[in-house]
Amino acid sequence: MTKASPTPGKTLLTPKDHTLILIDHQSQMAFAVRSIDIGSLRTNTALVSKAAVGFGVSSIVTTVAEKSFSGPLFPEITETFSSGPVYDRTSMNAWEDSQITNRVNEIGKARLVFAGLWTSVCIVGPVLSAIDQGFETYVITDACGDVSDEAHERAVARMIQAGARPMTSLQYMLELQRDWARGETYALTTGIARELAGGYGIGIQYAKTMFGGQEGGH
């Protein structure tokens, strides 16, 4: 007989069980994005970045042809990952650069979470490559963008067909928190949400200001 127990599903993310890989959130790559508003893309990328740093997630940040063509990273990324390296490369598929795969191997986690520009090139390439080599992959779809809705949607569908798991930026952060009784990261999570999570963040501000409302008794 199947029985329920209060334990999380094995596919749910925790702060220490995966590596976040942010790929090519650069100005030139963003100019052509049409599948998502650039303001929303920057906000979602900032939310993911701040959540990853706040929760201590191992992270890899990459660029392509930064100095010669694609330009700087979004400031939201450089400001948040101010002390870490940025791996620049020439290959469209980051997985084909040994800097990236060597770093993945150094960190040693078989679960990888991806986001970047463009979905159909910079994300499809490494995700399919990682899956082919036995890694478990997730894609934060609203921290990705492409030249059209069609390009983004077909890329996401292709990755899902290969076994990748899609999620959103806010979902990513709340999955890392997952229990409001975790007081050590409660202020971090609600603080990021108030700043970057749109209507949900305004709702947190309202509840706290108007009647001292808090999740989990905090």
TrEMBL record:
Coiled coil: none annotated. CDD domains: YcaC_related. The keyword Hydrolase applies. Residues 20-169 form the Isochorismatase-like domain. GO terms for molecular function: hydrolase activity. It comes from the Bacteria. Keywords: Hydrolase. The keyword RNA-binding does not apply. InterPro entries: Hydrolase_YcaC-like, Isochorismatase-like_dom, Isochorismatase-like_sf. PANTHER family: HYDROLASE, HYDROLASE YCAC-RELATED. This is Hydrolase.
